C-alpha cells in the first residue's frame, strides 16, 4: 500500500534539481504533480516526459517571489483537481559568499526566494487545506539550517528561518487542522548549484563539498518517504547527507 498514489502535489522549483527529481519519483508512484518554476519550456518538457510515461503532470510558469503568481498556481491546481494534498517548497538559491565581500544583492535574492517564496506558498495553500481538513507542506531545508559553515552566512540564515517556520506550522496547523508540516534537509547534492556562485573567495569551500556530493534522487526518495505515511503519522525533520560530509 502507498499513501502517495493519487495525491495532488504542487512542486516549486520543478524545472531542475530536487524539484525535478521529486516530480519524476512521485509521479512514478501515482501522484498527480503540478510543476512550477520560471522556465515554461523546461516545465513543458518535464510534464511531457511524465505524461508519456503514464503519469499525470500539469505545469504553470511561476515566479515564487511573486505572491500573486503563487496564488494563481494554487488556484490553477484547485481548478484542475479540486484539491491540494501536498505542497513541496523546493525552489531555492544557494549563493555562498564571504562577509568581507558584502554581496548584498545576492543576499536579497536568497531572502526573496528561500524565505518569501516559501511563505507565499504556505499562504496560498493553507485556506484550501483548512477547508479540506487535511494537507501537507514539505519545506526543503538544508544542513546549513542546522549548522553554519564558512561562506554560508546568509544562506544558512534563510534555512534556519525555514526550520523555524516549519516547526511553528507544525505546532499550530498540524494540531488544529491536521495539516502536516515537515522539513527535508539535504546535504551536498550533485546539481551544479556551485555554477551560480560568484564569490571566488569560497572556491576552496566548493571544491571540498563537490568531492562528496550525492545524487539528487536520494533527496527525492526522502521526500517520498515523508509523504508515504498514514494520516496520523508525521515525519518532522529529516536530514539526508553524504556519509562523508563534514557539517
TrEMBL record:
One of its GO terms (molecular function) is oxidoreductase activity. The keyword Transcription does not apply. Gene3D superfamilies: NAD(P)-binding Rossmann-like Domain (3.40.50.720). InterPro entries: NAD(P)-bd_dom_sf, Sc_DH/Rdtase_CS, SDR_fam. It comes from the Bacteria. It holds the Pfam family adh_short. Keywords: Oxidoreductase. Its EC number is 1.-.-.-. The keyword Oxidoreductase applies. PANTHER family: DEHYDROGENASE/REDUCTASE SDR FAMILY MEMBER 11, DEHYDROGENASE_REDUCTASE SDR FAMILY MEMBER 11. Belongs to the short-chain dehydrogenases/reductases (SDR) family. This is SDR family oxidoreductase.
